[in-house]
Amino acid sequence: MRAPLGDFSDASPAADRLDLLTPPVAKAIAAGWGGTPAESVVFVDTDPGIADTAAFVEHHGPGLLDASANCVVVAGKRGGDTTLAACVVLSRTRVDVNGAVRKHLGTRKASFAPMDVAVGETGMEYGGITPIGLPAAWPLLVDPAVADTEWVLIGSGRRRGKLIVPGKALAALPGAVLLEGLGV
Predict the structure, then answer these.
(1) pLDDT for the residue numbered 137
(2) Cα–Cα distance list, 76 to 71, 109, 144 (Å)
């Protein structure tokens, strides 16, 4: 199979590579969501040593930067309550944590969640967190630019491998909300 973007030597339907995904990601891909069939999600096997966006793009080509998205876990706090949420923005932007995210969550303070919390709550590896398979109760904030991108390269739940999905499929994930101004 040829990946819809990039030049990857090992690409296949993600449904055929569930063994390389974390359990929550594998379960979500197998089930499909919002009319997105499992066959439309592509897994590309990649070196875990270059999972971070800058290293990945340097190795696989700068053209991937415009089609890559990052998923980060944030913690919004108000009083003694903490709300965890995930944010998906194109890799060439950053998440507006203290503006758009804080306002959307209705919290007094918002920040990136500590690594141990992000990993523990998602069941995914740090540096590979993906919006697919996140806890159902979490808000999933997606920048509209991500949804408007034909094919998006995202994490696979592990540092090894990436997923390529239609951008509109990310907006159809459970709990997803398109949030203007999320990526700045």
Answers:
(1) 94
(2) 16, 6, 21
pLDDT at res. 129:
97
pLDDT digits (tens, 9 = 90+) for 161-184: 999 999 999 999 999 999 999 999
| 68-88 pLDDT per residue, tens | 999 999 999 999 999 999 999
Provide the pLDDT confidence category of residue 143 given band limits of 50, 70 and 90: very high
Spell out the SS3 assignment of the chain: CCCCCCCCCCEEEHHHCHHHCCHHHHHHHHHCECCECHHHCEEECCCHHHCCHHHHHHHHCHHHHHHEEEEEEEEEEECCEEEEEEEEEECCCCECHHHHHHHHHCCCEEEECCHHHHHHHHCCCCCCCCCCCCCCCCCEEECHHHHCCCEEEEECCCCCCEEEEEHHHHHCCCCEEECCCCEC
| Domain annotation for the chain: domains and CATH numbers | 11-172 (3.90.960.10)
